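Morning. Coffee machine broken again, so started the prediction first thing and wrote up yesterday's gels while waiting. Chain of 74 residues, entered below exactly as on the submission form.
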Amino acid sequence: MLRNDAAAKALLRWAAAEREAWLEAVTNDPLLPGRILPSDYLGQQAWRRRVEVLRDAGRQLRTFDPEKTGAGRA
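Came back before lunch.
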């Protein structure tokens, strides 16, 4: 749970950096069809974890209320 405006802004900065890193990764190493993946390939596991983390980050941002933390006051 995000406790203040600074934490919300930090999470948004992280999300932007994560997106940039992901795009760079899949541009340099595109996702392959499952039938031709090496047996030790971790890309699908990384994708599932990424989806979980981004879902949680989105939930935190959607439920963040700056008024409750005092961050919305001037």
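The longest helix spans residues 5-28. Going to sketch it on the whiteboard this afternoon.
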